[in-house]
Structure formats: C-alpha cells, structure tokens
Design goal:
Helix 8 crosses helix 14. The protein is α+β, with helices and mostly antiparallel strands. Among the domains are: about 35 residues, no CATH class; about 220 residues, no CATH class; about 80 residues, no CATH class. Helices cover about 25% and strands about 20% of the residues. It has 22 helices and 38 strands. It starts with 14 loop residues before the first strand and ends in an 8-residue tail after the last strand. The strands form twelve sheets. Strands 5, 8, 11, 12, 13, 14, 17 and 18 form an eight-stranded mixed beta sheet that branches. The protein has a five-stranded antiparallel beta sheet with strand order 1-15-16-7-4.
C-alpha cells in the first residue's frame, strides 16, 4: 500500500476528504437469529434456533460537549464573514450518519446547520419564535424535559414525529434538551432537502502532530466530520448579528416534504449547539487580520517577539542604568522582595523562559569545572547575590521551591519517590553491612577448621546466599584475599638453622561479631562505598528498576506542567494582549526545579549519597521520557504522531513560544510547526526546510486565549496554521483584472488523477462569480444543484462526488510565518 492510499496517516499540511463515514451498525433495534441443523445417520433431523434482540443507542436529545470540536465563525466574533459558509466540526467522524431518518441509499445525514439573521422575518412572521413563550435569550433557545417528546400536545407547534425507544423511557424525565421554534415559512425556506444534505456534510482527515494536547486526547487519529450551512451571511454597512443552530432532523421527514404542517405556526427542533456571531463589512476579526496583528505593529514595523519587558528608551551613561537595562534585556523582572530580616526591597526574577540562550552552569559535583555551581540542595543555596548593587537574583531559588511544592502536591509521586528512596538507602545500608562482615569472616576462617580448608571459590559459594550480586560478592571476597589467606602451618619439633621451634601460641578467643564490627556510619562511609565500581553498578541497576513513575513526573516538570503560570510569566508586560513571544528554556531553572522535587525524598545523609549516585541515570531517563511524553498521548496503531527521529532531549537546546491572541480562543486546533532550517525560494524567502521539522514536546492551551509550545531544538522558522479540519467553505476575492466583481469568486482545482487538488491557473479561466451566475438567491442561500453543475463543467469531469465538492469549496488555509536569520536567539 502506498502512502497516498494509507488511511492511517496524512502528509503534513494536507487534508484528506471523504464522502461519508457510515458506521457498521447505526442507531436502532436489531435481532440476531441463529439456527443450527443437525442431520445424524438415519431419518431423525434436529433443528435448533435462537434469537437475541439488542439495540444500538446513540445521542438523540443532546450531544456531549466533547463531540462539538469547533465552530466557525467563532462564537461572539465580529468579522467580515460574508464570503464564508458557517460550519461545525464534530470530533466523531461517524456521528452525522449514526441515524437513518430518511431511508434510501446513499444515506443522508440526520443533522444540519441552520443560520438565521437576528430579527429576520419570513412572510411577515419572525423566523425564530420564543419556545413556549419564555423570555427569549440571545440564541432563541429554551431548555425542556425530554419527557415532553413522548406525548406532545396537539397545538400549533409541530413536534418531531418520533417515539422514544423502550430503553429511553426511564431516563426521559432526567434528560434536558434545548429546542428552537422555527416558523413554518422559515422552515420551508432554510431547511435543506435530503438530496442537499449529503453535499453539506463530509469527513476530513488531517495530521494532528502539531496540535494541542487536549485535541490529541479527543481525536488521536485526526478524523473529523464537518457540517456546512448552505447560507452565507449578508454584506451590510452595519454589523448584523447571526444565530447558528446545529439541529436534529429526526422526525422531520414529512415536514420537509411539505406534509402535516396544516394549522401549524412553527416547527419545534432539537438544537445540539447554538451560538451567535456578527458580520461586518469593515471591522474584521478573521484569521488573516489577527495574524497580521502578530506580525506587524500599528506602525507597520515587525512586531516585538522577544520574551522580555518592553523598554521605552536606551539607558543613560550611569552604571546603575546600564545594569538595570541589561537585566531587563536578559528577561529579568524586578519584583518586590522581603528579606528574612524584614527589609523591603526588590529582587530580580526570571522564570524558565529567556530571550537568549542561557549557559549551563549548574552541574553534578563530579563534573564541576572552574566557575560552575553544584546542584542546589536547598532553596537558599540557589540565591544569587549581586554584591555591587546589593540585589538578589531569586530565579533559581523560586524554581527549587516550585519543584518541591509541585512534588508535595502530587501524592502518587511523593509516595513513589519515598519508596524508591528507601529501597535504595536500604540497599546502601545492606551493602555497608556486608562489607563489615569481611573482617569477621577473616577471623572465623582463622579459627574454624572447615573454613581454613576452603579455597576462595568455595568461600564465595558459601557466602553467596548472603551476598547482593556476583560483582559485589567477588569484590568483597577477593579484595580481602590477604586477610583470608590461612597462616603457614608450623610442625612441632622442627628446627630452623639448628634452633628448635616452639609451637605457635593458640589464637586468642575472637570477640563476637557485634563487638568487633567497626563503627562505619554517616555520609563518608556511604560515599566511600559508592566510589567502588561494582557497588555503583549494582545500586544503579537496582535504582533504575521501579523508577518509571518518578521519571514520568520529572519529565512533566521539565515540560513545566506543574508550574504555576505566574512563575512562567511573572509580569503582564511579558505577554501583552494579541502578542506572540519566543524564548529559550533555561536548563539551570529546570534542574533547580528537579532538585526541589527530589528533595522531598531526602531523610538522611545516605539518601543524599544515593541520589547523587542516581542523578545521572535519572536525568538520562527524564531526557528520554520528555521526548516520549507527547507521543504517548496518541500512540495508537492507526494514528501515530510524527517524530523527528531524536530519542532524547537536550535541555540546553529546548525553546518555545507563548501565544496570547483571539486566534487561540476562536480557532481551536491551531497547528504550530517549528523548523531548524530555511529553504528559501524567489517567491518565498522564508520557506522552511520541511525535512528539518522539530517534533513538539508540548502544545497546550493554558487559558482561553493563551497557548504554550515547547520544542526540543531551536527553530529558525515557526508557522502558525489555520486548523485544517476547520478550514471554511466559501468564496475568494476576485482577480485584480475583474473590476466590478462582487467578490464571490470560486477558483477551481483539478479533479483528475494527474494533479488532483492543484488549482488551475487564473489564465485558464477556470473561475467564476457565483453571484453573477445567480447561484446565490435573495436569502443568501446557495443553489447547490446549479453550483455543483458549474463546478463539474469547469473542472471537466463526468461526475462530482461529495469529496470533490468539498475540495472545490474549501478555502486555502491561512498561515503566519516567523523566520529569523540566526534562530530565535535574535528575538
């Protein structure tokens, strides 16, 4: 199977369209009949049959909030949306086809998107009426009990013509749903016919590798269904408010055919999702306008993107001014600080984000060079004092405390760390005890006849059940071989050079083991023991086992998942409204937080020695787990996230981006890509080298309008893409030579195998004005039949599938590009 035919993955930056995604079993009641016929020898024939009834349930009166992935135009937005067809993106690709309410093949969707202009009328009556006469709200909806659908009243309201299922009756009274009342005239005008519904719903598949974490948990594979309205917002001089409703069409078949509406003033419809937006001719909050605001300031110059406080002027010639200015340029913020003596002053603070790379100067004690610092064992050790100015830098002290508090707040991590620490410390103590037994073994061998007759291998075999590992056992026995060697035996009566030797005196009675063992306690004994290679290997091997939960939490800490946002952005000036900031991560800050987290497991000097031994292994495991953390969110067989091939993360190379914009709240599913190289072309000098794509380590929405991205390398190009699953249907602006055109232009794409999806050249004339061809009626609705015929003829194909229609109507995804000559360190 080729990559183009593999439905499990989509090429980066691509969209794959499908006509539909019908489930194997739709919602409804089913009966399984099983029959077995047995014909043994003779005339007897046995027949056995059985039946089993079951039902497939699905949403009917409401939809889970997780099923509504996004809407367009964004809720409460104000923009020039006249060229766009509103749409809803659903996180379940098969949801629109779960119910077959019209019959026939191919199956038509059972939900639709209706768009109303606030206050509009049809045949002199309001299009939307307040249900049951309640006080109307912004969306003209009302909440009612689902039990009212069981026996609806016979009045002027046309209720959906369906009966609750047998398994629903017990929950109807507990189920709430939202309804709208649509006037019969508006219903006949605005509700699409079953033949049109298939063209207004399709399935999209996109690459989710550069989307936020919450989206990966909802749709790991990148499959979505999209429902489009066939009505365009109107162009008006003054802003006009519109109301969009995602409605159920179950029980509407006869009404849509013009039946059973005699004497009815309105049709009651179940609304799954309702929102409002405003359309204006001038004021715009569309993707392009908001992205341009991030790229350019009000004067048209490149907008500031470095993560530092803005400064209004250059410093004067004084040393104090130069010092303060340089600190701010390095990303520091002056904050109020009260010393332990109660003095009120200020201190410098910089979180893990810095506008330029920060040199790694915090290292383990066995790797320390001149000018470098050891790992901090307490917060006060991480305070930096600028003696020339009498000011403290509290950045790493805060990091240490932040890591400690995060660890204390995480019960499972704290318990796992203490158990791991105690196992390791107990192993250190046991190893020390085994070492102390060697002198006793030597004395015992001198006095015990059986032991004296043993060789080294026999002694080792005898002691093996009480040893730790083969390496440690061999070390303990062989190192003291001289002490274990038996004394030369001298026979009585022998002479040496004519002198008669006396018999050797009997050895003194040895003291008991507990009386003779040396007092080797404290950190020095443990440190001396841990210098021996076999012991270190044994302890590291045991320490790596059972540390997964610890490493997992520390990897999250490296990705700042448990750090309060105030520690990341301590001043609002670092991230103003409608701004983007790029930064480098300070590896010293991350290590200080890691030290603080591990500190809750230290109870003795042996704990300290054991942690010092294990920290290299822990950091190596954390670097690997940090790389894999995001990949595990969507690690399914049919939807693996892309990877850049690297197995570990270098903390000194980590970088990221903070985005605070209406883009985050209005365009759910933004795609953020980073690249380490540029491959420029004459038409696109900032074109990235797509082979240098950086796998994101974290992409999360921290609030409604703030997004955090972290990469494991420093990008030279960063792109922010409009969500591909939410790219709108609509029309484009006319070409420059088309003077006087209305602006409802459609530029066709190729639908043949050679170059499918590639736009025709404008000179080919494969574009047309929908309004000029009378494809948009007085109510701003598309004539889908005629529109599809124009597309079919223009593209030169015999038939137009739903996916082909979607390809032609989708607008080109917008993209913002940030590029640097030497990477983000230049800011």
């Amino acid at each position: 199977m080729s990559a183009a035919e593999d439905c499990r993955q989509v090429s980066p930056g691509s969209i794959r369209f499908y006509d539909d995604y019908a489930p194997t079993l739709g919602v409804g009641a089913y009966l399984i009949n099983v029959a077995q016929k047995i014909e043994p020898p003779g005339d007897a024939v046995e027949c056995h049959a059985g039946s089993q009834a079951f039902s497939v349930a699905g949403p009917r009166y409401s939809l889970p909030t997780t099923d509504i992935f996004s809407v367009f135009p964004p809720e409460e937005s104000l923009g020039n949306h006249a060229q766009f067809l509103p749409h809803v993106v659903l996180a379940k690709e098969d949801l629109p086809w779960e119910r077959d309410v019209f019959g026939g093949a191919p199956q038509a969707p059972w939900i639709a998107l209706l768009v109303f202009e606030a206050g509009e009328t049809f045949e002199g009556k309001p299009a939307l009426l307040p249900p049951d006469g309640v006080e109307p709200n912004r969306t003209m909806t009302a909440g009612i009990s689902a039990a009212r659908f069981e026996n609806p009243p016979a009045d002027e309201v046309a209720w959906p013509e369906f009966s609750p299922e047998w398994y629903e009756k017990e929950i109807l009274s507990k189920t709430q749903c939202h309804v709208i009342d649509v006037s019969t005239a508006a219903f006949r005008t605005l509700v699409p016919q079953p033949s049109e519904l298939r063209s207004l719903v399709h399935v999209r598949q996109v690459d989710p590798s550069a989307k936020e974490t919450a989206i990966l948990k909802i749709s790991k594979r990148g499959w979505y269904s999209v429902l489009v309205s066939k009505r365009l917002p109107k162009r008006r001089a003054e802003p006009a408010r519109y109301i969009a409703h995602l409605v159920s069409l179950e029980g509407m078949k006869n009404y849509m055919a013009g039946q059973n509406l005699q004497g009815k003033t309105c049709v009651r419809m179940i609304a799954f999702k309702s929102w409002t937006f405003s359309c204006a001719g001038q004021l715009t909050e569309d993707f392009t306008h908001l992205m341009n605001g991030l790229l350019r300031d009000q004067k048209g110059a490149n907008a500031a993107v470095a993560y530092r406080l803005p400064t209004k002027a250059e410093p004067d010639g004084s040393a104090d001014s130069q010092y303060a200015w340089q600190a701010i340029q390095q990303g520091f913020v002056p904050l109020r600080y009260q010393t332990r003596q109660g003095e009120e002053t200020f201190g410098w603070y910089r979180g893990p984000f810095a506008p330029a790379p920060v040199e790694k100067f915090v290292v383990p004690h066995d790797k320390k060079q001149a000018g470098e610092w050891l790992f901090f064992d307490r917060a006060s050790a991480a305070m930096i004092y600028h003696k020339d100015y009498g000011v403290f830098d509290l950045s790493y002290a805060v990091a240490w405390e932040a890591g400690r508090l995060a660890a204390l707040a995480n019960g499972p991590f704290g318990q796992a760390l203490l158990e791991w620490q105690r196992r390791g410390t107990r192993l250190v103590s046991l190893t020390l005890e085994r070492e102390r037994q060697v002198p006793a073994l030597s004395i015992a061998r001198q006095t015990h006849r059986t032991l004296r007759a043993m060789n080294f291998s026999q002694v080792r075999k005898c002691v093996a059940p009480h040893g730790l590992t083969k390496d440690v056992l061999r070390e303990l026995v062989d190192e003291f071989s001289l002490a274990l060697t038996p004394a030369p035996r001298v026979k009585r009566g022998k002479t040496l050079r004519g002198r008669k030797l006396r018999a050797a005196p009997p050895p003194p009675v040895p003291p008991s083991f507990f009386d003779s063992r040396p007092a080797l306690t404290g950190r020095s004994a443990a440190e001396n023991l841990l210098q021996r290679l076999p012991v270190r290997r044994m302890l590291q091997q045991h320490g790596e086992e059972g540390a997964d939960e610890i490493v997992d939490f520390l990897a999250e800490l490296y990705l700042l998942m448990h750090i309060p946002f105030g520690h990341l952005a301590p001043h609002p000036g670092l991230l103003p409204a409608e701004s983007v900031r790029f930064f480098h991560l300070d590896a010293n800050w991350l290590d200080a937080a890691l030290e603080g987290a591990l500190s809750i497991g230290v109870e003795s000097s042996k704990d300290v020695a054991y942690q010092e031994l294990m920290k290299d292994s822990i950091r190596a495991a954390v670097a690997k787990a940090t790389k894999q953390k995001r990949q595990a969110l969507a690690g399914t067989e049919d939807g693996l996230l892309r990877s850049d091939g690297r197995q570990t993360v270098d903390p000194t190379r980590m970088s990221g981006m903070l985005l605070r914009s209406a883009l985050v709240s209005g365009w759910r599913g933004l795609e953020v890509h980073g690249y380490t190289a540029i491959n420029p072309s004459p038409q696109d000098p900032a074109r990235p080298d797509f082979d240098s794509w950086i796998q994101p380590l974290r992409i999360d929405r921290l609030s409604d309008n703030v997004m955090l991205c972290i990469w494991g390398d420093v990008p030279r190009v960063v792109t922010i893409d409009e969500p591909h699953e939410g790219v709108a249907f609509g029309f484009e602006d006319p070409p420059l030579e088309a003077k006087g055109s209305s602006g409802y232009h459609l530029y066709l794409r190729r639908l043949t195998e050679d170059g499918y999806g590639i736009p025709f050249d404008v000179k080919d004339g494969k574009h047309f004005d929908a309004e000029a061809k009378k494809l948009i009626d007085a109510n701003s609705q598309l004539d889908l039949t005629r529109l599809q015929e124009e597309i079919r003829k223009g593209a030169g194909v015999a038939a137009l599938n739903v996916r082909d229609f979607a390809l032609e109507m989708v607008r080109v995804p917008q993209q913002g590009v940030f590029a640097w000559k030497d990477g983000v360190s230049r800011g």
